[in-house]
Amino acid sequence: MALKTPEQINDDLLRPLSGTSGPYLIALAFLAGIVVAALAAFLWQIYAGLGVTGLRSPVFWAFYITNFVFWIGLSHAGTLISAILRLANATWRRPVTRCAEVITVFALSIGASFPIIHLGRPWLAFWLIPYPSERGIWPNIRSPLLWDFFAITTYLISSVTFLLLPMIPDLALVRDRALGWKKKIYSALALGWTGTPKQWYQLETAMHIMAVAVIPVAVSVHSIVSWDFAMAPVPMWHSTIFAPYFVTGAIFSGIAALILAMALLRKFLHLEEYLLPIHFENLGKLLLVMSLLWFYFVFSERLTGWYGNESSEMAVFWLTQRGSFSPLFWTMIFCNFLIPFPLLAIKKFRTITGTAIASATVVVGMWIERFLIIVPSLSHKYLAYSWGTYRPSWVEITITAGTFAAMALLYMLFSKVVPIISVWELKAGPREAEHPATALAQINEAGAD
Amino acid sequence: MAIPAAIYGLFAGPDSADRAVNALQAAGVSRSRIVVMSAEPFGEYSFSQAEHATLMPWLAVLGGVIGGGSGFLLAAYTQVAYPLVTGGMPIVASWPTGIITYELTMLGAVIATVITLLITTALPNWGAKLYDPEISNGKILVGVLDPSDDARAELDNRLRSLGAEQVKVTAPKAPR
Predict the structure, then answer these.
(1) What angle do CA B157, B159, B160 make, to 5 degrees?
(2) Which residue is closest to A187 within chain B, CA to CA?
(3) For helices A311-321 and A277-308, what crossing angle results, to 10°?
């Protein structure tokens, strides 16, 4: 990027906040329509009961839990990747971090709603919280489902603060340019930020501590999600590698979602001078590494199962390799490995278009992967007389579509009210690149203090 | 709280702002009366380094200890309050208790960090205060709080000679 003046950077990055185009409003209305349809489907499910879904014995976890695992995994796009890049002092991260952190907050909120959607009586979700109730019943701490509650709550609070803290100086920037009622709102949101050296130092120290804290939290969240499955004696679930396998899949899908979001933002918000080919190139390389790592885990998990040759495991194994779930399995392999690998490994194809195509297939492939972990195992447990099948109902499909629309809708709305690229971090970038040693020493000093 | 009386200059870049701060200090203005504001961090400049002291990492550790302790007590009490039949195994299961303790340790550290940040930076502060919107356009504000009437003219000249593009004066004003 050619060096721009602070005013030019302000103009470019605050432009999306002023005015809305016709196509934007049409897209917003379209997405809102899908979200409303999903809400209507959910209300119908509450009224009529879970019988309106395709959930039948023995498959009581299906689309909703697939969505839960998928969205929680996708949430690893932001906070985790942003934290790693911050700690690694990767100066190219600067235009990327906020795009990523926003994905985390919205994906995590959507993912966390699925266990509640999946409840027959969602209004009793608060029973999951340990509190002294008049019933004298406390939740069972031994259940991984309760660990989810603590892990997701911690990750959500950490991610929201990790997103909000570096937003404060940018909200002050918008405040200084806004007029009328907008000025009042942004003044309130900016908390009275003035940009004294003390404020900057404390903010950067806080971001450094948060980055250190949030990485193990993110890893623990998806490990705990994997233990929802791995702690159960169900064929193909009771596996020691599930935690790292899930964490790898989560980062894999998260990077893919981030690349996809960046490509769309670049095109529709005209951020070509800020989201550069080098960002897609670097993230594309990361995606390639994760694709290889994901394939390694899939291969290793299946090879171990196949060598064990335990009959109930093999029933599920062959169901996915050659049986009724095989079209989905091979689509997953194509989407997560065979398509992205050449697109990302060959430099000529590792363009913005190439990485965006690879990312789109990975997002699809990872949703299928989550579905294949859950449904085939539940449909073919130990006793053959209890085998069953699963077919999603319109309610589950509508609610699933609604969450994808909700994600896009929230992202579009967010990019209209807050600069989607961190303006102050971007401005500080070229100077830090000139003095990387100074910048690094400063960050280390913050840690030492 | 009223806007404090001050005289300040707006500088185009950190080098001139740094020179101005050093010159003001050399002229006998105490550091506590010199105020600097910018739209981005300039940690490598001396005008920032005076502020490089914080207990935040230690307070984060303290928050983690408090969070972890609370997590352990919550998990242990929950299991004792509704004891399940465990067939001779411990009522308080160590692995799940460890997981809850870990999560709340991290949550405690995060919350302590945020609270420390808000307290040390005096945020939120929606009251009237010294500020200039030109800071958002890249200007760096260097000013002196509570200048005496005699010193104003001299400070004005000094700030201009040190490279201030504009020099402004604020008088004490009650918030609206």
Answers:
(1) 65
(2) B126
(3) 140
Q: Which residues pair with B170 in a beta bridge?
A: B6
Q: Given an 8 Å threshold on Cβ–Cβ distance, is B121 in contact with A147?
A: no
The runs of H, that is alpha helices, within A167-276 are 167-177, 180-189, 197-230, 242-268
* A252: Cα separation from own chain's centroid: 10
Question: Which H helix or E strand runs over B35?
Answer: strand B34-37
Characterize A126-151 residue by residue with b for buried, 16 or more Cβ atoms within 10 angstroms of its Cβ, and e for exposed.
eebebeeeeeeebbebeebebbbbbb
Count CA atoms within 13 Å of residue A144 on its CB side.
14
pLDDT single digits (tens) A300-351: 999 999 999 999 999 999 999 999 999 999 999 999 999 999 999 999 999 9
> What stretch of H or E contains A323?
none
Q: How far apart are CA B35 and CA B47, in angstroms?
A: 9
In whole angstroms, how large is the CA radius of gyration of chain A? 23
The answer to whether residue A2 scores a pLDDT higher than 70 is no
Give the pLDDT of residue A446: 39
- Report angle CA A247, A250, A252 to the nearest 5 degrees: 110
Do residues B150 and A215 lie in contact, with contact meaning Cβ atoms separated by under 8 Å? no
Q: Answer yes or no: do B43 and A201 touch at CB < 8 A.
A: yes
pLDDT at A83 over 60: yes
Q: What is the CA radius of gyration of chain B?
A: 25
* Residue found by looking up tokens 């009328």 in the block: A180
Chain center to CA of A366? 12
Q: Determine the 3-state secondary structure of A119 from DSSP.
A: coil
Instruction: Check: CB of residue A172 under 8 Å from CB of residue A193.
Output: yes
- The Cα A177–Cα B134 span in angstroms is 10
What SS3 class is residue B8? strand
pTM of the model: 0.90
Contact A158 B110 (CB under 8 A): yes
Q: Which of A432, A435, A428 is nearest to A9 (CA)?
A: A428
Q: Cβ distance A439 to B43 under 8 Å?
A: yes
Look at the block and give the residue holding tokens 């830090």: A432
**Contact (Cβ atoms closer than 8 angstroms) between residue A302 and residue A317:** yes
Alpha carbons A394 and A402: distance in angstroms, whole number: 12
- Contacts of residue A428 in chain B, CB cutoff 8 Å? 40-41
Give me the residue label for tokens 């004005």.
B156
Q: Is the pLDDT of residue A439 over 80?
A: no
* Pairing relationship of beta strands B166-170 and B140-145 according to DSSP bridges: unpaired
> Is B171's Cβ below 8 Å from some Cβ in A?
no
Nearest to A197 among B47, B125, B126 (CB): B47
Best of B52, B85, B113 to substitute, by most chain A Cβ atoms within 10 angstroms, is B113
Helix (H) or strand (E) holding B16: helix B14-26
What is the rounded CA–CA span in Å between residue A197 and residue B43?
A: 8
